[in-house]
Write a structure and sequence with these properties.
Blueprint lengths: L1 H16 L7 H17 L3 H8 L6 H17 L2 E15 L2 E12 L10 E10 L2 E9 L16
Antiparallel strand pairs: 1-2, 2-3, 3-4
């Protein structure tokens, strides 16, 4: 009986010390998008340009562009975005797509029109991690769905 108990303890210890499996690549991209949203809701242009975007010629120019965008939104009463859904898909070896449904909220909690919005994002994996390389629109009244990978020709 002691031998069986000892074996059970060893098995339990081995399971407890085993490393957790790596998250699915889609989950990593989805978490990246949630982290991006956190920086967005802080209106942190410098962090977004440095850690999330690769859309402008330089980080400095992208930071300035983002700050102009935030100034425009704040002039409309914008405070933050409420995220309703995020979907991520791996589309290639170092490529991904993400879709997001959200509302832009004013300080009083009322949404800026239109209430329901959606965006799509093209992402590429660089040596320093995932980065958004393109932004596009999406239909807020349609389900978020992954784009189909193109067949090799």
């Amino acid at each position: 009986m002691r031998l069986l108990f000892g074996a059970c303890v060893l098995v339990a210890a081995a399971c407890a010390s085993a490393p957790a499996p790596a998250p699915a690549p889609e989950a990593v991209v989805e978490q990246f998008m949630w982290d991006y949203t956190k920086a967005w809701n802080q209106h942190d242009s410098a962090t977004i340009a440095r850690d999330f975007y690769r859309t402008g010629p330089t980080v400095e120019e992208q930071t300035a562009s983002l700050e102009r965008g935030f100034e425009n939104l704040r002039a409309q009463g914008y405070k933050q975005s409420a995220i309703h859904e995020v979907k991520a898909c791996i589309t290639g070896p170092d490529a991904a797509w993400a879709g997001m449904k959200f509302s832009r909220l004013k300080a009083d909690g009322e949404p800026l029109p239109p209430k329901d919005r959606a965006s799509s994002y093209t992402l590429k994996k660089f040596a320093d991690g995932w980065r958004i390389t393109g932004l596009g629109g999406a239909a807020a009244d349609q389900p978020l769905s992954c784009p189909h990978e193109e067949e090799p020709t």
